[in-house]
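note to self: dont lose this again. the chain is below, predicted strucutre after it. 229 aa total, dont forget to put it in the shared folder this time
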Amino acid sequence: MYFSLITAAEGRESAAAHERMRADAYADHQWLWRFFRTVPGGSREFLFRRQDRADAPRYYVVSQTQPDGGNSAWSVQSREYAPILRPGDQLQFDLRANPVVTVTDGNQSRRHDVVMHGKKLLLQQRGLSAWAQWKESDKPALADLVRDTCSTWLDQRAERLGCEIDRDSLAVEAYEQHRGKGEKVQFSTVDFSGGLTVVEPTRMLDALYRGVGHAKAFGCGLLLVRRSA
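---
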């Protein structure tokens, strides 16, 4: 596996920014393909995270094959990625994820944004059909609803990720609904950060290599970690 950082080449920041500044998440994924050579029978599978900056965006990428230069406006720095993890290791993490819950209705199963699903359940408990109808003082702020529903979503996945999440340090921020054609909500994202403790190293490595949750083609799921100071 390889961990790569793709940034604007020195002196080419304007060209790089012009190329990517207005791209949506799926366009970013399609664009990143050009950094990977295709071999017969192979694939270009990778995880990525876009980080917007004042000059030009940068991309963190985890992949099975090493990316190459792509084009002259961009610089690629890569290293082999094989973290050594042991039970009890404490790590700081950052994660942009697409938190969803699968709801089964009869023979059909559909994924729902956990925040919107949380809203729906609260409204059902009060016999309401719309969020604006809730006038009482116990109506939760959106930030509180995001934090509660999304942190629960991450907690429920901690065991399969091979870790324990430190809820005291957990930050849940930047909830955003991304809209596609016709302005319909296509997917949602939220940014997590905080501390975790490794419980099962094999599962933790699998999460680092394969990602967390859905919408990976839209820049979700890459778990960035570093040793706690």
